[in-house]
Design brief:
heterodimer; A: 113 residues; mainly beta; 4-stranded antiparallel β-sheet; 0% helix; globular; B: 110 residues; 6-stranded mixed β-sheet; disordered N terminus
Chain lengths: 113, 110
C-alpha cells in the first residue's frame, strides 16, 4: 500500500516550458488535491477534485490546469512555467472534501529559472 | 536543508518538557480541525483531529484542545522528544477543502 505517490521528485524548468506533475493514490479516496508550499506561506490549495469527473479551483489556480484521469490519478499541468511557480508541490487525497483527514504525497520540488 | 518553514514562528522546548502549539482559526462555521506534522523534506503527516462537538481529544502523547468561543485550537505534546522537531500546521474545514495555517516550527533542545 503506497499511499499517495508523486512524480517527479525534483524538476528544473526554464521560463516558458511546460510540464505535468503526476499524482496517484491507492486508498480508493474520492477527493484529491494539489497544493503549493512556499517559505512562510503554509499550504495553499491550487485545485481539487471532490470526486472523479469533477475539478474546482482553489486559492491560487492561475497558471495551472488539472486533470482527474480516473479515481486514482490527478495530474497538475503548468503550460508556460514562470519563476513565480518555483515551489514545492504536494498532492493529497481524502475521503471527504473538508471534514476528513487528507493524506499527502512526498512532494515535488520545482525550480523555474 | 528544507527551505519551507523560513520565517515561521518558532517554539523552542527542552527535551522532556511539554510543548503547546497554538492556532487561531478564522471560520466560525468550521466543524473539523486537524493537526499535521511536517519534517524536513517530507509531506505533512496526520497527528490528530477533532470535530466541533468536542472540546478535547487525546492521542498518544498528544492532546488537541478546541475553544470555539475564541476560535482557538491548541496542540499539546507531552514529554517532547528530539523526533518531535518539525513544522506543525493546523487546518480547519467543513464541506469545503481544508484551510491550512502558516505553521509553527518546533525545535527540541537536547
Amino acid at each position: 500500500n503506497a499511499g499517495v505517490t508523486q512524480t517527479p521528485k525534483f524538476q528544473v524548468l526554464k521560463t516558458g516550458q511546460s510540464m505535468t506533475l503526476q499524482c496517484a493514490q491507492d486508498m480508493n479516496h474520492n477527493s484529491m488535491y494539489w497544493y503549493r508550499q512556499d517559505p512562510g506561506m503554509g499550504l495553499r490549495l491550487i485545485y481539487y477534485s471532490a470526486s472523479e469527473g469533477t475539478t474546482d479551483k482553489g486559492e491560487v489556480p492561475n497558471g495551472y490546469n488539472v486533470s482527474r484521469l480516473n479515481k486514482r490519478e490527478f495530474s497538475l499541468r503548468l503550460e508556460s512555467a514562470a519563476p513565480s511557480q518555483t515551489s514545492v508541490y504536494f498532492c493529497a487525497s481524502g475521503d471527504g472534501t473538508g471534514g476528513a483527514e487528507q493524506y499527502f504525497g512526498p512532494g515535488t520540488r520545482l525550480t523555474v529559472t | 536543508g528544507e527551505s519551507v518553514g523560513l520565517h515561521l514562528p518558532t517554539l523552542s522546548v527542552q527535551e522532556g518538557d511539554n510543548s503547546i502549539i497554538n492556532c487561531a482559526y478564522s471560520n466560525s462555521a468550521s466543524d473539523y480541525f486537524i493537526w499535521y506534522k511536517q519534517e524536513s523534506g517530507k509531506g505533512p503527516q496526520f497527528i490528530i483531529d477533532i470535530r466541533s462537538n468536542m472540546d478535547k481529544r487525546q492521542g498518544q502523547r498528544v492532546t488537541v484542545l478546541l475553544n470555539k468561543t475564541v476560535k482557538h485550537l491548541s496542540l499539546q505534546i507531552a514529554a517532547t522528544q528530539p523526533g518531535d522537531s518539525a513544522v506543525y500546521f493546523c487546518a480547519e474545514g467543513q464541506n469545503t477543502p481544508l484551510v491550512f495555517g502558516k505553521g509553527t516550527r518546533l525545535s527540541v533542545i537536547a
